[in-house]
Amino acid sequence: MPALWIAHVTVTDEEAYGKYAALAGPAIAKHGGAFIARGGRFVQLEGKERPRNVVARFESVEAAEACYHSPEYQEALSHARGASERELLIVETSE
Fold first, then answer.
1. Cβ neighbour number for residue 93 with a 10 Å cutoff
2. CA–CA separation, 61 vs 58, rounded Å?
3. Which of 12, 53, 66, 95 is most buried by a 10 A CB count?
4. Separation CA 32–CA 82 (nearest Å)
5. For residue 8, what pLDDT is reported?
6. Which is it for the CA torsion 84, 89, 90, 91, positive or negative?
7. Sequence-ordered list of residues with C-beta below 8 angstroms from that of 77, at least 6 positions apart, any chain
8. Which residues contact 23 (CB under 8 A, 6 or more apart)?
9. Per residue in 31-77, pLDDT tens?
10. Strand arrangement of the beta sheet that strand 34-38 belongs to
């Protein structure tokens, strides 16, 4: 079953987060992820608002999780830590 990687982000250090973004995109693509939404317009209806929301589609929960734990993504993530506040989850779709 396909899965969505959903991130809700508040960037606190634009320069460091830019390094994350430059590395994260290729890491996600390498693992079969395709972006559906990246920081576009949104309406917050409930919960904590984060100004940046990202959704990527993967072929499975396992593929998305493997991407997260990959050396390439972990290198990217080292730049996001301390440069952002974020929540990240993977959810299986019904399609």
1. 12
2. 7
3. 53
4. 27
5. 96
6. negative
7. 20, 24
8. 72, 73, 75, 76, 79
9. 999 999 998 899 999 999 999 999 999 999 999 999 999 999 999 99
10. 34-38, 52-58, 3-11, 84-92
Angle, helices 71-80/61-69, rounded to nearest 10 degrees = 70
- In SS3 terms, the chain reads as CCEEEEEEEEECCHHHHHHHHHHHHHHHHHCCCEEEEECCCCCCCCCCCCCEEEEEEECCHHHHHHHHHCHHHHHHHHHHECCEEEEEEEEECCC
Distance CA 16, CA 14 (A): 6
Tell me how far apart the alpha carbons of residues 5 and 28 are, in angstroms, rounded to a whole number: 10
Tokens of 25: 């995109």
Phi, psi (5° rounding) for residue 53?
-130, 130
